[in-house]
Amino acid sequence: MKYHKITLGHRGAEIYPFKLNTEQYNTFQEKRVEFDEMDYDQICEVLGVESYFDSELETLIGPYPDTFYMKVEDEDGNLVYETEELDREKCDYEEKYCSQDAYLIIEDYCKGNILVYDIPLEEDFDVEKIRFEVKDVGCRIEIVTDMFYDDKRYEIYKSFGDMTSKGYYYHITAGI
C-alpha cells in the first residue's frame, strides 16, 4: 500500500450559509450588507448568532475552479504530479442554496493549501482516475469541495490545509 498526499488549493473560500426570514432579508437589503456597509457584530446580531461559525447549515470549503492547483506527492514527499488547471470535464457539479429561499452567503476569501488528502493506493497514482466535486453555492460562488479517486470518496482521509483569510464577501440570494 502506497500513500499519496494530494493538495488542492491556491485561492478559494470557506463559506458560511444562513437561511433568512423576511425580516432578516429586508434588514440586510436595507443596510446594504452586500456592499460591505455592515460590520461583523451587526451581521451576527441580525442573524442571532455569536459568530459566523454558528450556522446551522453545512459550511463549505475549497479552492475556486478558476484559481485551482493540485499537487500530488508520494509517501517520501517526491512530486508525482502537479497542475494549475482544473479539467472541467472531470467535475461533477451541484447547486447548493440556490432556491427561492433567501440566504446570506458569507464568503471568507482565503489563499493557501485548502484541502489535503492522504490516501492509500494499491497502485501508482494515475491522474486519469481523479474526479472533483464542484458546488455552485447560492448560484454565485463555485468551489471545489471534494475529490474522488477511482470513483471512491476519500472523506476520512481529508483534512484542511494551511490557509490565510483575506477578507469577507457577503451575498444575498433569491428572495422572499
Topology, pairings included?
Elements lengths: L1 E18 L2 H9 L9 H8 L12 E15 L4 E5 L7 E6 L6 E19 L8 E8 L3 E9 L2 E2 L4 E3 L2 E11 L3
Parallel strand pairs: 4-6
Antiparallel strand pairs: 1-2, 1-5, 2-3, 5-9, 5-10, 6-7, 7-8
Descriptive notes:
- The protein has 176 residues and is mostly beta strands.
- The chain has one domain.
- It is 10% helix and 55% strand.
- The strands form two sheets. Strands 1, 2, 3, 5, 9 and 10 form a six-stranded antiparallel sheet that branches. Strands 4-6-7-8 form a four-stranded mixed sheet, with no helix packed on it.
- The longest helix is centred in the first third of the chain and has 9 residues.
- It is elongated.
- The mean pLDDT is 93.
Supply the key terms.
176 residues, mainly beta, six-stranded antiparallel β-sheet
State the end-to-end CA separation: 53 Å
Number of strands: 10
* Unreliable spans: none
What is the averaged pLDDT score?
93
Please, how many domains?
1
Order of helices and strands: EHHEEEEEEEEE
The main sheet comes to: 6 strands, antiparallel
Q: What does the radius of gyration come to?
A: 18 Å
- State the share of residues found in helices, binned by percent: under 10%
Strand content: over 45%
Question: How many helices in DSSP terms?
Answer: 2
| Rough outline | elongated
**Which structural class fits the helix and strand makeup?**
mainly beta
TL;DR?
This protein is mainly beta. It is built from two helices and ten strands.
